[in-house]
Design a protein that fits this description.
The complex is a heterodimer of chains A (about 290) and B (about 100). Chain A is built from 13 helices and 5 strands. Chain A is of the alpha/beta class. In chain A, strands 1-5-3-4-2 form a 5-stranded mixed beta sheet, sandwiched between helices. The longest helix of chain A has about 40 residues. Chain A is elongated and about 130 Å long. The model of chain A has no long low-confidence stretch (mean pLDDT about 80). Chain B has about 100 residues and is α/β, with parallel strands linked by helices. Chain B is about 25% helix and about 25% strand. A 5-stranded mixed beta sheet of chain B has the order 1-5-3-4-2, covered by helices on one side. The N terminus of chain B is likely disordered.
Amino acid sequence: MNQQKVESIPISDIRIINPRSRNRIKWQLVVQSIATVGLKRPITVALRPQSVSDGKRYDLVCGQGRMEAFVELGEMFIPAIIIEAPEQDRQLMSLVENIARRPALTHAILFEVRVLRERGHSSEQIARKLGLDRAYLYGICNLIDKGEEFLVLAVEGGRIPLSVAVEIATGNNHEISRALSEAYEKGDLRGARITAARRVISQRLEKQRLQGKTSPPRRKLTGASLVLEYKQKIREQTALVVKANRTRDRLILLTTAARILFADENFRTLLKAEGVQSLPAELAGRLSQ
Amino acid sequence: MKRAPANLRSAFQSNILTLPLSSIVPQKSTTAEVVRSSIFKQILSSVREIGLIEPLVVYPQEGKGFLLLDGHLRFEALKILGREEVNCILSTDDESYTYNKR
């Protein structure tokens, strides 16, 4: 085998000897990645004997996905490493995988962002390098800064959307964050309720702190207990609203009745005769409205 | 043949280097668990039989050798097989995340 240089060769000169059917979605990711960060490695082709008549000078050894992505992106040429190898070896090479086509580890992006930051790159530089949206990357950095690795894992594992993870990581109580993400993953808390639940719990902790209970002897905060507490608060507030509504309805009824009565000449005469000359200020105010 | 203007960027240099394994710095160590895995055994035997199909990807670090960006398992296999040199592509960027998208 003789490798020296990467050359740009016409894609039309390449013959695919062992076509591989690919996952379209994964391939779209390849296309997207190449369009954003460029081609990360050349394809590999083998030179065919001069005598072949179909005009294809090369056999593809490795890189069908990249080659098809280049075609998709409107390119006629592609950077390639050209090797010389006997027919048999070429066939073998195009069949054998000697790279691990394993899916990216769930925390690969976490690892990468951390390493790149240690090397002194800014968030913007990293976003550009990785071809990622800046907002997405800021979210990741924020999670890393707060040490919420379990949250990043949950995001990478697709169990929690990043927006929710960022929301959960806001504030600085690790235990609350953990409980919230637990509750989210179980589907007990969703959307705006995450924010509401955190506020409820934070308020409770703050109250305990003000009362001088710096380390209250309480059970470990779990997703379930958090949901319970959140639901309890919701119940209290709902009950309060119901009570207020009922009171307002009664008040309207009473006011209307009183207004009708006071409009009656005979009723006013009766009151005077009975010596009832004044009204409670609250009621008088409502009647004059 | 007339060359079409290239619109897409290449994130590597056009020359391929043959580097001593000792000058390459991996970013993570390969665990015993990985070495025992079937995927690693597969890579090991294919490297033994036909060599590397695609070169490793490295990034030159000033005075500190070459940072290994892609090919940690193949690098480990080469070490086990007692190879001393390996073909490498020089990357123009130092990230290793996007190599995961194949």
